[in-house]
Amino acid sequence: MATRKRITIVVGAGFSAALTSGPKPIIGCAPIPMLRDLGDELLEFASTLTSEQRAEIPFSDAVLETTIAALAENHSRPKSARYDFEQFISLVSIRRSLLATRLAESLPRIPPGSTEAVSRCLLSLVAVLFATRLAITHSLQANRMFWYAVRDAPRARSLRESIQELCLRHEVTFISFNYDGLIEAFIDYVTPDPRKPIFLYIPEVSHGVPIVAPEHVYFRRENRDLGRFDRFTRVLKPHGSIHFFRARPSVEGLLGSAQICAIHPRLDLDFDPTKMQRDIPSAGWWQFADRVPLIVPPVLNKETVIATDYFSEVLRLCINALADADAVVSIGFSLPPSDLHVCAAFEIASWRDKRLGLCYLDPPGGATADNWERVAHGALTTVMSDSGLPVSHEAEIGAFWRAVANLAES
Asked: Cα separation of 266 and 148, whole Å?
């Protein structure tokens, strides 16, 4: 067996899009939108909420209507003048900041989407939209486990086995900028012997920061020996996740602690109801939870975000993972110049003679390779695919992930 290598895999929206798009998606019932399309899709989704979906949005009708009005205002612009979601949510944040100054006294009207509630409502809509398209229940709510709908079981198994084999052979760290938990669901656990599975992903230990299961937040201490999971794969999530939650601020203040809890994402694949359960009931913590997931909004100016405990610590771990890697592979992440904090953090890592593999599918005018070249000075770059993540058939899936291992081993 080859010497274990350190491989850091950067995952962006192109990864989720490849699994959920096309005539025969592997996962979900509808594509996960790219950032450039998210605003328009959120508007359509928010304007047609079912009663069940509306119940998952923890905001008043007035806040939701103002949020929809802000999205509609942006959509009414000519397409060439329309803000993408990153720009739009930054605009909302900037408006809010302006209204906190004396400038507000001279404004003839309050622009739509100028409150913190609207900003948080947008994030809640994102989470419910993703869950509607991905979950077997079409719902974000779960006590402990979140099950992703598998549409093509053979290709899903091939992808799961390929990713898990890479994680078993090498020391792999994923840096995922996606709000979903798809990569975590594919890692999960391996069962070479059903009596003794190997857990590669455990939410409580895999994300690099202290996280607990919902049932262990305040009511019962964790009594498992998490130290025995010594082969877990780290998944760093700088932008948070639809599966991460915190308690409401008032509850955190009363208890003097600020814990993050995480739902365990899983694939609805090979589920055996005689040996497994869909969820663990009676997780009483949810009555104290902030129902807006811990998502770091993609604002252009992250000066306030970078000061937070979560984002600054995870960004530090990302820099270390890139610096320590023998090889770095980017799948569907364009490293946009507008994300200045991430670009600056990535540039800090030493890239001289480091192997860098790129897998992407650029829209017209896209510049993924140029973006990476600007940041990864001196890297030995290989374009592994410029037509997106190969997922058309099982052999293609296996060949790609073997190529990831070969890049590090060569």
From this structure: 6
pLDDT score recorded for residue 276:
76
Mean pLDDT by 10 residues, the chain (410 residues): 88 96 93 89 96 95 93 92 85 72 58 76 95 94 92 97 95 96 94 75 92 76 59 91 90 72 92 79 80 82 60 92 96 88 88 96 91 94 96 97 95
Segments making up each domain of the chain, as ranges: 6-29+141-409, 35-134
At residue 302, the pLDDT reads: 56
